[in-house]
Amino acid sequence: xxxxxxxxxxxxxxxxxxxxxxxxxxxxxxxxxxxxxxxxxxxxxxxxxxxxxxxxxxxxxxxxxxxxxxxxxxxxxxxxxxxxxxxxxxxxxxxxxxxxxxxxxxxxxxxxxxxxxxxxxxxxxxxxxxxxxxxxxxxxxxxxxxxxxxxxxxxxxxxxxxxxxxxxxxxxxxxxxxxxxxxxxxxxxxxxxxxxxxxxxxxxxxxxxxxxxxxxxxxxxxxxxxxxxxxxxxxxxxxxxxxxxxxxxxxxxxxxxxxxxxxx
Length: 264
Hints:
This protein is α/β, with parallel strands linked by helices.
């Protein structure tokens, strides 16, 4: 974690980036095909921006159970997924036998057997980069593994509107309008998330959008496309319609970024 990042509640993040301690819970939510948010929003956005072509070699960083693998392979591209959780990678290998999956840390791709320097055409982070700390090490790893002509695609919860525990919905009764409350944006922070009581936290890493753009720029990538994706409608969400008034779909849930270098 960089020196200017503050830690929510004054607690220190786990040194181990693996989600092994919550793998069963996470698999129950995501499963083999991805959650409804993966299927309807995140995966289509990633594929639109990535546009994998036949013969290309794609690296899925934070691949988890490998929900993106069949979509990449279906375009005729080669697929390698990496994740720090051996349990999630084992699930991915069972479910997607035509793909290659490796256990490893996104911050040290050079230490993962099976990867070679400047050997891949593109990298994608599908709802994963927000769970990874040390962005400067992640981008240094990208520089090591990607070709001079390459692209990076990131799909994440929107940093400007969806900071865990530091944003939320409010309702203006006079205007009959839901609005988004933001407690902070510019200051990076690590927020503990206790998805499974007693299992220990995972950590959500909030950063302003400029940090992603500048870190990619430092290794020669320039952003050439962005997508801001609204939430599902109330009737599309798991569990059906929420009580009215519904939240404001003009405020996006996800942000997709594509960056290129060398015309890749």
